[in-house]
Amino acid sequence: MKFTHLDAAGRARMVDVTDKVPTTRSATARGFVACSAEVIELLRSGDVPKGDVLAVARIAGIQAAKSTPTLLPLAHVIGVHGATVDLEVTDTGVEIAATVRTADRTGVEMEALTAVSVAGLAIIDMVKGIDRTASMTDVRVVAKSGGRSGDWQRP
Questions:
Q1: Distance (Å, rounded) from C-alpha 143 to C-alpha 68?
Q2: Is the CATH code 3.30.70.640 the one for domain 23-147?
Q3: Is 59 exposed, middle or buried (0-12, 13-18, 19+ CB in 10 A)?
Q4: Choice among 16, 52, 91, 125 that is catalytic
Q5: Residue 112 scores a pLDDT above 90
Q6: pLDDT of res. 27
């Protein structure tokens, strides 16, 4: 098996995508922040002491998508041409969905995963004083489109 991020000597390398043709690509990732009933009530009423948790998480996720190459050393610097972070308060926590789009040489799965992860961290940061047990789970890519491998959706 050939590993794309290792050279012939086994050293880490960034895959060279110079000769690839830019194409439209997108990826959607999802995750969940589990939190207490008290936090759910405060999120729904807008009374979390630190402020608007969902607005902060949304902006944090979008910023994170654009910052992915600074966090993941072998990720390519690509143009993030669109990023959305959707948050839904449920009876047990907050569902997070992020979709990232580009017209570039490589996909945006890592950007979507980073957006979900950082949005979840922002939520936890803002509610940890109320609920120290808040936790993030199930961060995963659920769909991608474009590129050599085409479209894919998690079954």
A1: 18
A2: yes
A3: middle
A4: 125
A5: yes
A6: 98
Judge if pTM exceeds 0.85: yes
Token couple for 63: 């910023």
Domain ranges of the chain: 23-147
HSE of 55 in the Cβ direction (CA atoms, 13 Å)?
5
What is the structure's pLDDT at 67? 98
Token readout for 59 is 């902006």
Answer yes or no: 52 catalytic: no
Q: Which residues, listed in sequence order, are joined to residue 95 by a DSSP beta bridge? A: 32, 88
Strand partners, 93: 34
Question: 7: which residues sit within 8 A by CB, 6+ positions away?
Answer: 13
pLDDT of 2 higher than 80:
no
- pLDDT computed for residue 148 by the predictor: 85
Parallel, antiparallel or unpaired: strands 135-145 and 93-104? unpaired
